[in-house]
Fold:
Amino acid sequence: MRVASVLSAVLGLARSVVVAGWELVPAVADDRTTLVVRVRPRQRRRGRCGKCAKLAPFYDRGGGERRWRHVDVGFATCELVGPAVRVRCASHGVTVAQVPWARHDSAFTAAFEDLVVHDAVVASKLACARRYGISWRAVNAICWRVAEEMLGRLDLLDGLVAIAIDEVKYKKGQRYLTIVTDHLTGQVVWAAVGRKKKTVHAFFDDLGDERAGQLGFVTCDGAEWIRDVVAIRAPAATVCLDTYHLVSWATDALDEVRREEWNRLRRTGGAKAAKQFKGLRWLLLRNWENLSSGQKGTIRDLERANRRSFRAWQMKEELRDVLSMPLAAARRALDDWLSYASRSRLVPFVKLARTIRHYRASLEATLEWKLTNGLAESTNAAIGRIRANARGFHDPERFITMIMLDRAGLAPPLPWAAGAK
Ligand SMILES: [Zn+2]
Structure:
């Protein structure tokens, strides 16, 4: 077998790339050994604009040669060296010609970039920068370039029937993103900075009136900034109350009751009881089925120890039960729950009952259409993980890029995955 064929196979070069030569540059100081491979596009791939890939006449030889960092070969780093021919594109003027191994305007090969994006998504940008010995800034640029390329190729907003519109915090101090998720695929399809009517309008502008008319369901929380706009822009869609938010409202109400009781115990001098009670917080907020038998016993004891907290806890669990019932039974159970909560004399639950009455139609739509699959919950958890891996984001656009790469399925397959090239 010829060395050129071995290199072509080992480096995963496409058939449109000719291996014209190679040399091994020995390691110096901190640098590793470098395998330098001279390449050029086959004749038929020459003369295309680097930006739009349209055929374009030859302009000049550019700066002579360019280098691209490629996927490492064992202990050695690898560089492709090739011509930097420029063409004159009818739309883009004089640009560097397209090469089959790299994206436009990059110092890395496409295979190397795909690998970097993969690692940045599954680990973190920092881990990725260390792993490949490139700057954090370079990792950022790569993620952005790959996401842009994929967004240009795909239309994520096509064929949407049921969507969730939600907000995600990206920074302290009321900084939010608006995220749109497809209920059928579970993928994020749109994201932007802000949580205002203007933001939701921008989504519907991108979607267009025709596709908005095909939307059957929109789930969201009680936010009027979403509901008002949906009513105008997708009047045919049924608005559903996301049950994830409903459960979190009930959990908040329970926590408020617990806090009031704790304060009351402290005021009335029951220091020991108050201390014990404080430790209950996480227990109360967890779902009954996830508690150990010992923890369940603690909650049963609460019935005697603190009647009000126990009732609040019961109401939270009952509301969760309602959500898993068939529609007719859920309606009856919800009626019972609402009248009980209204008479409970637990202010947070009286308020919650009022809120639920206000959104009753949306809640019933959710139960009827079973859009209760915890989509918002899993999206929120995944986005939380992305934020934690990055130890927060200063630039919301970078946060959006990572969300789209990970949750919109934009991250390319690993370069050696079947069909990747
Ligand atoms: Zn062009």
About this structure: Residues 243-267 form the longest helix (25 residues). The pocket of zinc ion is lined by residues 49, 51-52, 54, 89, 91-92 (CB under 6 Å).
